[in-house]
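In the current project phase, we have settled on a layout for protein records. One protein thus recorded is set out beneath this paragraph:
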Amino acid sequence: MRFNLDNDGSPGTMVSLLLSRAISKLFPTSEDVIRIALCVNQRTALHAPLAHQSLVGGVMLEYKDRMRDWPLDRQATSYRGMVLVQSQEEIVLSGLASASGICRMILSKESDRERQGMVCHISDLACRIATAAVNGRFTLDFIQRFSSPVYVNEFLKELEDNGIVYDLQDVNELKLPNIKLPWTE
């Protein structure tokens, strides 16, 4: 937490920023913008302060070229600003309308096979990092569809470079059976 506070970041923005910096170091000449999706509480924007996790939404944090030379605290301030802007009521409501449109698009498909194909395509676009903070400790889960540890290793190096102590626990490779659904054959 001290690292977050010293650099004007929150736990979510700092994890996102450190991951962005790690990816940037892996691909220093890439012209693609690095985008990290961060889950945020949307209860305030939706006027539902007592609601449970069902009102968690996402914001997109872009690590832009001009940011690469900024000091860490300025980068963190920029990420926090992106979260603030994207958490405003009108933006949240617009995002909900967009999600509703995606659901209608999926449901408009004529067959289960077409709907499954659309869902698979949308799922392929999503990458997830789960973060939890309890008793001053943060837990991160990296879930990826490939076995190379290149991103995780660069992220851990970014932690080390910033003096953040970590414990690497339970590296597991999930093995799923290759099941073909009737409509995917």
